[in-house]
Amino acid sequence: MFGFILLSGYLLLAGIGVWLMMSMPRNEIIRGLEKTVPWILRINLFLLIAAVSVCRRELWNFVKKFWNRRGVLLVGLCITAFCMTAFTVPRTHRIFYDEDIYASVGQNIALDGRAGQCNYGTFEYGEYYPHWITYNKQPSGWPFLISLVFQMLGTHELYGFLLNNLIFSAAVLTVFLIAWHLSEAFFASFISALIFGLIPHNLIWHNTIAAEPSSALFAGLTVLALIIYSKTRLQRHFVVLAFLVPLACQMRPESILIVAWTVPALLWLVPGTFTERTSWITGIPVLAFILPHLIHLYTMRGMSWGAGGDKISLSFLAHNIATNGIYYLNNRFFPVIFMLFAVIGLFFTRRWLKEKLLVLLWFFIFWGVFLFFYAGSYTYGADVRFALLSFMPLSVLAGMGCGYTRDYLVSSGFRAGEKGRQKLFSFLLTGIILVSFLQFLPLVRRIGQEAWGARYDHQYAEKFSKKLPERSIVLTHNPAMFLLWNRNAIQAYAGINNPQIIGHLMEKYAGHVYFHYNYWCNADSAPNRNLCRAIKERYFLEEIACEREQNYVYVLYKMEARK
Question: Is the separation of the CB atoms in 548 and 452 below 8 Å?
Fold first, then answer.
């Protein structure tokens, strides 16, 4: 009888999902997701925190185990990782204007409770009104994390950067914990975390507002939770794992592939999980949490990702394998010695065979998924950020390889003074790793010419925003930027498509309506250039501020209706 009730629960949830996707109009589904997704994420996070709090005794016992010099070293590494990415790496956006959109969705979740970017928003004496909300094709997991910071500290672009800086420290600790629970060897675990913290593109992308850092972290937390559960077989540890999975799935579109790792890992390490009644009971809320995300993925299918042709195809495989494989070997962007240690860790360490193969599967899933993607090449613009999802498993293997190398060097010498030799080779290998990173410091400190037009647009837009009166509004292709700076903004197309709204705004703000002549007015995009030209023809524009970069012109105009 109980089994029948449980099966009915799963069928009911699945049936609701299928019914929604098959019968409801797309626009209604999207409006429902806007309101539902933030609440689902909040409840999921609350239950995850509650599940972790139930494990507080194990957590405290673990902390006590490192209440010594080793713990000081680990805390020092995490603090150093934060400082490295926050103060060594230039703080800048690297994917325009996606990072502004993530922060805008976070702003709307925090202040309005809806998951979507705002295309027309105003602040009336400190109160935020998002008039036009557009549901974003990207999952809302990362914007939800941003929204939590915005709710606590207020809306400011800087907080998105600082959150990713903190995520970097948390990821370094996560790598250590994964390696520790696999090997229980401090040196190998510490080196795993150190290697992860020294990967150049890791440092670079953790000082942005990109979604990849959170995606990598939550995948790593899921792996950690599963490894702990496989060792303890305690049901409360399974519950933590179960509530982590839905959150991990919603950071990026490919994040759902963590399920493709979790299921075989459970079957191999803890096959009895799927015979436990309590596991199937826990699965009911997990399915409820992940169902809106499945509906999101279904609803967003077929969306344009910046390409006119195929997005996923076998035709991209050969090129992406070549570029994404050599990335780890040519010592240009990724220290090849880290890859060498990872190979040693994979093939020469005799213990942890199952675990090593699962770590390798973790790498192949998140490295392999982009091989079929049109923009999956690490040399395609800023898409090297996709490599971040592969760094954790490589770091774990590299730490094991470094630990094996040290032990081999110690055992191959005289037995006398073994502890001294162990310290010597520990310092030597750590020194080699640190020295190998030095040649990448110029890369880490470099902004580069990538997206220079959009970068200067963002820089000058912030400068222009400070010239806007409190009671004013600006037409721009990127309202998210101005709204994050607490300035009223509306999409530029309203100037042509919604002239009655612009007339109302000119009355409401006593003529203080402005037009931001921005990156899209300069770029080789006929529709956007035509829109900017049409606004110039329709309205009288008075130049307020102007900046130039190469052949691009960025202007803030005050708009008036032509008589």
Answer: no
Q: Strands 539-549 and 552-561: what pairing?
A: antiparallel
Threshold 0.90, pTM exceeds: yes
Q: Look at residues 9, 563, 8 and name the one whose alpha carbon lies nearest to residue 286.
A: 9
Nearest to 115 by CA among 90, 142, 94: 142
CA-only gyration radius of the chain, Å = 26
Residues 160 and 149: their CA atoms lie apart, in Å, by: 8
Domains of the chain: which residue ranges? Answer: 2-94+159-445, 452-561
CA dihedral angle for residue 122, residue 536, residue 547, residue 455, rounded to 10 degrees: 60
The dihedral of CA 218, 224, 228, 233: what is its sign? Answer: positive
Distance CA(531)–CA(549), nearest Å, equals: 21
Residue 370 per-residue DSSP state: G
Tens-place pLDDT, residues 263-302: 999 999 998 888 888 888 888 999 999 999 999 999 988 6
Contact partners, residue 438, CB within 8 Å, separation at least 6: none
**Reduced 3-state DSSP string for 13-66:** HHHHHHHHHHHCCHHHHHHHHHHHHHHHHHHHHHHHHHHHHHCHHHHHHHHHHC
pLDDT tens readout for residues 77-133: 999 999 999 999 999 999 989 999 999 999 999 999 999 999 999 999 889 999 999
- Cα 343 to Cα 195, 365, 409: the distances in Å are 14, 18, 17
Contact 397, 360 (CB under 8 A): yes
Which distant-in-sequence residues (6+ apart) come within 8 Å of 502 by Cβ?
Answer: 475, 494, 495, 513, 559
> At a CB cut-off of 8 Å and minimum separation 6, what does 54 contact?
236, 239
Closest CA to 132 of 487, 494, 471: 494
The residue written with tokens 């750590």 in the block is 430
Q: Which helix (H) or strand (E) holds 552?
A: strand 552-561
Number of other residues whose CB lies within 10 A of the CB of residue 10:
13
CA distance 71 to 54: 23
> CA–CA separation, 266 vs 376, rounded Å?
29
Taking a C-beta distance cutoff of 8 angstroms, is the pair 515, 535 a contact?
yes
Q: How far apart are CA 156 and CA 291, in angstroms?
A: 31
Q: How far is CA 472 from the centre of its chain?
A: 34
196, 187, 183: which is closest to 78 by C-alpha?
A: 196
Other Cβ atoms closer than 10 A to 210: 24
Handedness of CA 522, 528, 530, 534 (dihedral sign): negative
Spatial distance between the Cα atoms of 332 and 202, rounded to a whole number of angstroms: 14
Among 501, 562, 500, 559, which residue's Cα sits nearest to residue 532? 559
